[in-house]
Every structure is written in C-alpha cells, then in structure tokens.
# Entry
Amino acid sequence: MHILVTNDDGVSSPGLRALAGAMEKLGTVFVVAPEREQGAVGHSVTLHKPLRISPIDTNVYAVNGTPSDCVLLAVTKLMRRPPALVISGINRGVNLGDDVTYSGTVSAAMEGTLLGIPSIAVSQAGTRNFKFKTAAYFAWRIAKIVLNRGLPDETLLNVNIPDRMRISITGVRLTSLSRRRYEDPVVEKVDPRGRKYYWIAGTRVSWERHADSDYEAVRQGLVSITPIHVDLTHYPVLDQLRSWEELLTRGVLTRRRPSTRLNTVVSRTKDSSKRTLSRKQASVLKKSHRMIRRRPT
# Structure
C-alpha cells in the first residue's frame, strides 16, 4: 500500500524525515512537501502562480506551494492511485485548540480527508530540541490502527505529542479542542524612518481547560488524539435559527412586491368594459399623448 507523507515545515524538516521513516514500516512512502516553510498558511491553495514539482530523491518531491497544494498534486498527478493514508507532520510545536484553523499541518490532513482518504496530522510539543522519535513511534501506532480500521467519513485525526521521552509518556487520550487566549496578539513597532509596522505574535497566557481538552491531555503527559470533522455546520444552532427563515423571507417578499402602477395601466373604458395594457403598451401610449400636447397649433 502507498502512504503520502507531507508537512508545513518544508521538505528538509527532520520531523518529516522521522515520520517518513516510521511510515516505511507500513507501506511504500511518497513524500511531497513544500520546498520551504509554510507554517500558519491554513487551508490555502495557490491560485495566483503556476506550481512546480521538483524531484529530490526517490519518491521525494518538493512543491513551490502550500501543504494543501502538495496533497492535491500528489494525489491527482504524482501517484498512480490514491494513497491508503495521508499523514502530515511531524510539526515543530503543538497544534491545539483553535490553532488548528491556522495550521498548515492540520490543513494538509484536511485536504486528504476532502479527497476521501483517511488522514492524520501529527505535532510535537517542544521549543528547540524536539523529540521526533517519540512522535514518530506514536504516529506509527496510530497509523497502523487507521489503516486496519479506517476512519469515519469526513473525519481526520489531530495528534499532539507531549515534550517527553517515549518512556515518560503517561498514556493516550481522545480529546476535544480547547480554546486559547493571547495577550497583545498584535505587536506594534516603529521602523528607523518613523513608520509603524506590526507583528502578529503575542504571548499565549491561558487555555480554557476542561477534562477532555487536548491542552489538558498534553499538559499531563498524554498523547492527545482529537477527531476533527470537516463539516463546520453548527446543527443545534441551525435548528434554533429556523424561525429566522419566516422573518427574513417576509421582508424579501415585502420589498419585492410589484407596484400596480408599474405593472398595468387601465385604458379608457369602451362599451363599459376595461382593458389592461402591458407596461410597454402603456409607455408607448403615454409618449403619444405627450407628443400630441406638445404639437404646435
């Protein structure tokens, strides 16, 4: 079986190499990754320039695009048949909570899911010395189960590994997304010419914690696995807002109600009967009357 490995840190990332090495135990690996770092690009695809695929090694390719571009090109152009699995990572740093909406790592897995392929995103906690061997080991174990059992439709797995050696990992937990809060998310500075410029950065100061959150699991030394569904519809609220349909539809119909004066003109009565003229006929009749009035005597 074929397995597609990608990431958002770039084709030369050590996390990508560690992940590809672990996946080789499960099948034939194709690596298709961005030629340079593409962190925080979200689920963007490249529409404003041509994309190019550069061979790096056997079954290893670099793309001058985003992680989602890489998955799309790999599945539709490079690989003879769709892979049995798309796995993205190993990302340098966690992708927890609503950070998944910005993550190129998670978005690559989402692209695979949209293409109908079981997909996993893997991220490793840390700052400088990342323990990619630990993450690769758990990625292999999770991928093995997914290949054997599959995933529900339109569902991907977001996996986050604590910054610990494998022997120190305390377990695995299925989790939900947490929420995070930043202090001063936009940093304002002034350049040497006195002009203001901005960095979107800030300091993460707190997480909204609950018992099954991904943040809480990683904090406790657990591997976090969060199932993410690509359908973003909030169904309970959808039912709550059903009453809006009548209110909004009523307003539309009121504004669109045609004017009787615009639709028809009642002509002169003849033989005690009324004849209705079309708008075009009424317009011609009015013009004729104006011309008659203006005709010099």
About this structure: The two ends are 96 Å apart (CA to CA). The chain has a mean pLDDT of 87. Residues 237 and 243 are 11 Å apart (CA to CA). The domain at 2-236 is CATH 3.40.1210.10 (Stationary-phase Survival Protein Sure Homolog; Chain: A,).
